[in-house]
Amino acid sequence: MGRLDTEAMTGLVPDFLAVIHPAISHPSAQVEGFIGGLLKCQCDKSPVVVSVGSQASHNHLCGCSLCWKPDGALFSQVAVVPRDAVHVTENGDKLGLVDPSAVIQRYACRDCGVHLVGRIEASSHPFYGLDFIHTELSTDVGWEPPKFAAFVSSIIEAGFPAAEMPNMRRHLRSLGLEPYDCLSPELMDAISSHIVLQKQSRPRQRVEVAAE
Ligand SMILES: [Zn+2]
Ligand SMILES: [Zn+2]
Fold it and tell me: 150 alpha carbon to ligand 2 midpoint, in Å?
């Protein structure tokens, strides 16, 4: 994860805009009919380029410790797109798997550390068929902006003071980003519905699913 500005977090009043995510002060403006664009890592020379042929959905801030964050940010900004729409087009040889044991297989540039795409290989996972991307890596205009904040309490693990959490949640709400300590109700319902369907089709098998 990115370097944290601990001074910004330990002051009497944390600089919320500075530590939440840099894109929050200028969120992307969603464009009707937007069909995707190019994601680039942060290497000046020979960046990894990923072509995404789809608008993103469920874009949100994520406070978990696994998603890639820009330097100084407590949250990542992460969305999903159909995996068929994702193609590595340049310098794919620089991509490496961050943690082979993670449910989401996150591929990062070995030189700059930026995560380009997260893929779920387990076909039983509720989000199988979707890839996770960070739309801020694109200069194309029209991506869906973040709609909520997930795994908010996890920012304490990154060093954010627990006593400031009510202020953090208030601040996220004021930005129109409802804070949740797991995923949004819509996505949690999708996960539970998927588990019910799996239990119905395979009644004797235990189904265990972790979102991250
Ligand atoms: Zn790079
Ligand atoms: Zn996350």
Answer: 8
Tokens representing 57 are: 């959905």
Tokens coding 160? 């954010």
- pTM score: 0.86
List, for residues 93-147, the tens digit of each pLDDT value. Answer: 999 999 999 999 999 999 999 999 999 999 999 999 999 999 999 999 999 999 9
| 64 annotated ligand binder | yes
Both tokens of 125, joined, read 């996972």
Among 3.40.50.970, 3.40.50.1820, 3.40.50.720, 3.90.1590.10, what is the CATH number of 6-184? 3.90.1590.10
For the stretch 83-104, pLDDT in tens is 999 999 999 999 999 999 999 9
Look-up: residue for tokens 């904040």? 149
